[in-house]
Every structure is written in structure tokens, then in C-alpha cells.
Amino acid sequence: MQLTKPVHLSLSGLFRHRELWAFNCLLLFVLMPIGIKPILQLNHELNAGLFQDDKISIKGTILDKATNTPIPFASVSVVGREHHVQANGKGYFTLLLRPEDRIHALRVSSLGYVSREYKVEALLEKAGAGDAKIFLEPKHRSLKEVEITAKAQKWKAQRVGYHIDEGTSFHYQFTPSDTASAEGPGQEIGTRIKVKRKQAVLQSVSFGLAGSGNAAVKVGVKLYSIKDNLPHQNLLPKPAIISIKPHHTGWITVDLEKHNITVEGDFALIIEWLSETTRLNSGSLMTFATTPKGQVTYYRAAGAKPWRIRKSTLLDVKSIGMYATLLYQR
Length: 330
What we know:
Number of helices: 3
Radius of gyration: 33 Å
Distance between the termini: 127 Å
Largest sheet: 7 strands, mixed
Number of strands: 23
Organism: Pontibacter diazotrophicus
Oligomer: single chain
Helix content: 10-25%
GO molecular function: carboxypeptidase activity
Keywords: Carboxypeptidase, Hydrolase, Membrane, Protease, Transmembrane, Transmembrane helix
Structural class: alpha+beta
Protein name: Carboxypeptidase-like regulatory domain-containing protein
């Protein structure tokens, strides 16, 4: 006898649900002609709006097309928008985009390279779920062998050192400032330059810069005689100081011709890192996996601390790019 009551309630509930369903159908029939959207349609549009707000991202590395090496601190921007990011010291970047940016293009640029534009949609398809590789061509500036004639004498320029022009083909030319001075001693690193003849005139020195970072860098150039295979006496009355702007990478050539330096025998080419905002580290200078035969690398911390010879190991690469341009009399 107790079974009839729940059956009666279930049927009653069913009628109530049918009445509610009929009311909803009537409400839909009334609202549609006057332009009021049903709740289901509104929910669909809200969900679509939420998905439209989702960001898409492009990740990748910017590389030198000639050497396949990373280009640090390159700029990646959306054409037509004030939206850009900067790659890190290893050329890697992450750029967040709006879905509507798929139809736009990205402009990739770096000092010393030809800027390029890439379609966003094409980059996304090419990269897939991985990272994109973007290549820039360097602006080639060839350094040719020169002859200098003075007082009926002929001179031939010859570059002597290690990893000459490797890593990148771009060069920056600097002339030391007559007024710049060092506020204090800095870290010093350099290499031994072997003079192939008895006497030569020093025209310029060059070193490879991996990246100057986000701040200007002040560098002093020093030349030392060699004694007991270590730097000995400074050949310059004061260091030749240059200031390098932020985001520079490439070969830095310092003109020393006005100093009229004549070298007789091997000497040590040393750069002193005088920047107070960034310290000299393994990412400051161009380093190479292989050490040329005969290369000796010197280092000492700031101040008059003893010189040390740094040796290359598999885990700690110490081969740096440095060379001098010498004038030999013909």
C-alpha cells in the first residue's frame, strides 16, 4: 500500500516537467521575433569570446644565416603594432600574440644584420609544436689587405692572432677617447700575439664581443711585453679606452695608429673590462670550442693580482677571439 504513493508523486513530477518544457518552448517562440537571444545562444557566444581572448605564442631562436650561431638581443616586433620583445643573450625569444595577429607579419632585426619580415601564420605552421628557427643575413663589410706608402717605404698589413673573423662577419670600428678615464681597475683577459718578424708597427687590435648586454660597456685596451711567458710591462702610457653601446655583438676593432707603437717580438694583447653594471663573464666575449695551436690566454681579477694562464677544458671553454693588425715593411 505504500507503493502507490511514490508512483503518484513520480507521475505528478513528470507533468510538472512537461509543463516547464512547454513554457520554455513558448518563451523561445515569443522572444525570437523581437531579437532577444535565447540563453543557449548567449552562452555559446560568451564561450566563443573567452576562446578569442586566449593568447597564442611563438617561441624560437634567431640565428646568423652565415654561421648558424645565435644572434643575441635581436628585436622581434609585430608589424603595425607597438608590440615587440627582445631575444636573450642566446638569441631565444617568446612572443605572445592575439588570435587576430595571425594575419600580420613579424619583423626581426638586429644591428649588423638585414631585417626580415615573416608571416605569423607561416611561422606557426613551420614551427608546429616546437620552436621556430629564424635566420638573418649579416650586412657584409669586407676587410681587405691594404698597403700604406710613407716616405718612399711600402708597408703590408697582416692580421695575426686567433679565430680571425670567425663567428660573425660584422665589424665595428672604434677610436679611443682622449678624455675617457677608468674609475678603477677591472678584470683583464687577453692572449699572446706572435710577431712573425723582428719588428712591426701596430695599426689596430680586434676582439670578438658576444654581447654588450642592456647597458653601455667601457673597455680598456692594454699591451704588455712578455716575460717568463706572462704579461710584464705595459707598452702603452695609459690604456686606450672605448665605450660600446648596448646590444652590440661582433668584432670590435680599436684603431691604435696614432700611438705609433712599434713592437719587437711577441706581446700580450689584453682588454680590461671597466663596466660597473656588468661583470666580464663567459657570455661577454666570443668563445670557441677549439683552441688553435699555440694560443695562450691570460687572465687576472681586478687590481694588481698575479696573472694566470687559463687552459681550455671540455667543460670550460677558454679560447677567445683576438687578433692584431700589424704593418710590416716590405
